[in-house]
Design goal:
The chain is mostly helical. Helices cover 50% and strands 9% of the residues. It is built from twelve helices and five strands. Belongs to the NAPRTase family. Catalyzes the synthesis of beta-nicotinate D-ribonucleotide from nicotinate and 5-phospho-D-ribose 1-phosphate at the expense of ATP. InterPro entries: N/Namide_PRibTrfase, NAPRTase_N, Nic_PRibTrfase, Nic_PRibTrfase-Fam, Nicotinate_pribotase-like_C.
Length: 265
Amino acid sequence: MIKSILDNDLYKFTMQMAVLELFPKAEAEYRFTNRGPQRFSREFVEELRRVIDEEISALVLTEDEYQWLGENCSFLKPMYLEYLKNFRFKPGEVKVCLTEEKELDIRIKGLWHSTILWEIVLMAAVSEIYFTTIEKEWNGKSPSTSESLLEAYGEKILEIGKVLEENGCLFAEFGTRRRRSFELHDQVMKTLLPIKTLTGTSNVFFAKKYGLKPIGTVGHEWIMGTSALIGLRYANRFAFENWVEVYKGDLGIALTDTFGSEAFF
């Protein structure tokens, strides 16, 4: 389900390094919001809890992954890579429960640099477990249907990729948090490899696996967190001044819409 500590978006690692360097004692709290009509079950909650406690908590940065990051992500400092080598997800930071209305309540709380990697892996796990415990028409594992449906998805993805390529559209893959399953995500990546206008993927694991460029800089979380720590009025300015302090011109992308374009410009 989550196959590696690198099975995450690059910008979570870049933000984690900045938080560790500038705000090592800052605390954060996250809360899951379901924007759809889906309802959940006790079976779902129990499986999610198991995945958190047994699978995600066991993830570690391997020596091979450590070396790859050092060679392919030069903006990540040696100090941070050592930190990541020793990093472990802490299941106690995550509370999961089912409300009376069958809504899913997930809360994450702890030091910001410790909790920041949970978001993507939990969203990917929520999606995959939903399709294995609730909407079971296809869960990516059924011998009678999985292969043909994976092929069908692959054909559709290839068709879309070719249209983008034929029209000169450069694009990157950013699907980790919304993927139906790890298996399908892997199928998408394999299918897109021949498309010459594919510039890379946000998923560091798949970037390593398929020799692609890992894509990502900073997320809205960085500006939002800065606003809570330093103040809302000049949050955009302080957030990016701090970003430049850490990265010295690398990863020079500024998000303008955290609090609206008017507030930024």
